[in-house]
Amino acid sequence: MMSQPLLQQERLAKIMLACAACYALFGMHLYLPHLFGIGLQLPFNVAGWFFIGLMTAVGLWHWHRRRLLTSRFWLGLLAASGLLWLPFFYLHNNSVAGHALPRMLGLTGGLLFYLALQQCRFNARGRRYLLYCLLLAVSVEILLGMVQFFLLEPGNWFGYNTEVRSPYGIFQHRNVMASFVVTGMVLAVYLWLNEAKSPWRPFLLKSAWFAAVLGAGAVLVVLLQSRAGQLGLLLGLGLMLPLVWQTLIKTRSKRLLASLTLIPLGILAGVFGLEAFEMSKRSLNIYTQADGRFDIYAHGLRMWLDKPWFGHGYGGFESAFYQTYAQWREQNGADALFTEMGHPHNEFLFWAIEGGLVPLLGLVLITVLVLRLLHRVPFAQALAWVGILTPIFIHSQTEFPFYHSLPHWVMVLVLIFVIDAEYGQRRLLAAPPAWSRWPVRAWSLGLMLFMATGLYAGQQLTRYAQHEGRGEAELKAVVNPLIWYDRVAFYRHHWQLKKALLVRDGEQLLDYAGWARRFLTHTPRAGIYYNAYLALTAARASEQAEQLLAEARRLYPNVQLLRPSSIKRALERLEQVTPEMSPAELNDFIPLYDNLRPAIGGAY
To answer: Which of 230, 247, 300, 472 is deepest in the core (most CB within 10 A)?
Structure first.
């Protein structure tokens, strides 16, 4: 008869699996109208963090009642995360470190979620069900991608562009969709190779499921035209080959061989789809061109070498990037780069630029810990696991999937947890003190509340931005402005600017220019420079206005909004403004910059 603690652990694991299944089936694929962007600007990420908070609460609710189960790997991960956190507290260059807080809390939330999984003490069957949940999530995305490409019509509820016809699933971007689908394809091969053949009927159903993921996924990989996804698939399947060969030697499974041929068949079907449907096709030159990344990487490396020890400060990458690139461009006569460059398209480089050597050592330590964990796995199995992790790793070195998509972060955490639970070295720590349950519960419940209100706030702000007759009262009614802090601050001060321009209130105009200056230290936008220039000009601060305009043109020499013809037209319109105009009429008459673009990056 099973003891009471074991029954509790089994019940806890079942609840966690139910939550994971709900997230994989529904929460991960939530679509609501939004203003685009990355991270919490996308509703499916907000919903995902709600589920992470729920699962963390489930796993850690009673953690103080028994000894804490963890692993040597998690303790090492905790130490590495400490290295990533350390530069956040540097005093000499962290004036805008608060803008790095969301990613630091995302890192901490991932650690607690991993610890919550460990407290459930999944057996081998439970761990396999977790992998099924991941594959289920990929399957839903594949289905959504196929519906987008083949079925959706113009003017669809999803906002999907049928002219471009890139089946991006819920992710809003081809490369993010591709790396997620490719990871699922490699995982499907792994699960198939390790699937028990009895009882026979469930094995056939699962085999059909795995085959469908391989065939349909291959179609999407071609249709998405993603270099990162295609390279990830090639390397992932290549690393899986030793395990495939071992399995074929043992079982001589013709069905497996036949199913693997679905991948090239799916690729052929995807090529046919490219030719048969009207869609945006990328040139074959994409396979020989760096798409601007070489310039980004080269300058990112220069930035790190310029300040290798302490970096340019957390949260300050975008501003530092344009300031240093403008200086380098003037010295070397280089061309201008993209605007809204919020990430150097390489995760290691990003942390090194902002934090210097310490966070770079933290990332290296995490990599070493994962490799050391895989060292304990039989060689063919270890290569297979590396193959599963490879697509997302490659994507993180060429773009920034973890900031765009929470499902990628969850995918990596669950995959490494399964490896750790099966092959890692377990550690039993002393039971935490009773008082510690309150901070942990507050984190989990607070996270759920923050995301629930944030989801509603996102809809309020979307309606505000899309409504022609929007008013300031609607902006003040946003229930959780913190989740869209920069956007809400931008809209609030934009109202201040419009009202001050109408009545020529010099004090309010100078106040707006001061806010714009502070905002530009962490989020430099050509449009905000433009608005601030008009505010200073209207306030008769001509010298400051010209200095600001010169700085803007130095950073963004190719932006149309800052060219003499645009500035001259705006100043002429500014002289014609009358107090009888409404704020909306003023906004269109000059016009003002009224849409804060997210820092996605031109090469992304």
So the answer is: 300
Please provide residue 429's backbone torsions phi and psi, each rounded to the nearest 5 degrees.
-95, 165
* CA–CA distance, 455 with 459 (Å, rounded to integer): 7
d(Cα 503, Cα 496) in Å, to the nearest integer?
11
**Residues 298, 304, 307, 312, CA torsion sign:** positive
- Asked whether the beta carbons of 307 and 266 are under 8 A apart, the reply is no
Q: Is residue 116 predicted with pLDDT exceeding 60?
A: yes
Helix axes 43-60, 4-25, angle to 10 degrees: 180
What does the pLDDT average to over 92-120?
Answer: 94
Q: Show the tokens assigned to 162.
A: 């049928």
The C-alpha atoms of residue 221 and residue 230 are separated, in whole angstroms, by 7
Residue where the block lists tokens 């009673």: 62
Integer CA distances (angstroms), 502 to 399, 498, 512, 532, 533, in order: 43, 6, 14, 15, 16
The segment with the largest mean pLDDT, out of 134-143, 313-322, 557-566, is 134-143
Residue type, 397: Q
Asked if the model's pLDDT at residue 604 lies above 60, the reply is: no
- The CB density around residue 72, as the number of other CB atoms within 10 Å, is 15
Query: What pTM did the predictor assign?
Result: 0.95
| pLDDT for 277 | 74
Ordered DSSP codes for 203-220: HHHHHHHHHHHHHHHHHH
Q: Say which DSSP state 484 is in.
A: G
Q: Are 236 and 387 in contact (CB under 8 A)?
A: yes
Q: Given the DSSP bridges, would you call strands 426-429 and 68-71 parallel, antiparallel or unpaired?
A: antiparallel
Over residues 501-521, the mean pLDDT reads: 95
Q: What is the mean predicted confidence (pLDDT) over 102-119?
A: 96
The closest of 208, 82, 185, 64 to 135, measured between CA atoms, is 185
Check residue 522 and report its DSSP letter.
Answer: T
Amino acid 141 reads E
Structure tokens at 21: 């299944």
DSSP state of 27: G
Taking each helix axis from N to C end, the angle separating 406-423 and 72-85, rounded to the nearest 10 degrees, works out to 140
Share the mean pLDDT of the chain.
Answer: 90
Angle at 112 between CA 108 and CA 117, to 5 degrees: 145
pLDDT number for residue 252: 61
SS3 223: helix
- Give the span between the Cα atoms of 202 and 200, in whole angstroms: 6
Neighbour-count burial of 245, counting CB atoms closer than 10 A to its CB (0-12 exposed, 13-18 middle, 19+ buried) = exposed
pLDDT tens sequence across 536-557: 999 999 999 999 999 999 999 9
- Distance between CA atoms of residues 103 and 350, nearest Å: 12
What is the average pLDDT across 556-565?
92
pLDDT in tens, 437-467: 899 999 999 999 999 999 999 999 999 988 8
The letter for the amino acid at 478 is V
Is residue 479 within 8 A of residue 453, CB to CB? The reply is yes
Q: For residue 98, name the pLDDT band (cuts at 50, 70, 90).
A: very high
Secondary structure class of 68 (helix, strand, coil): strand
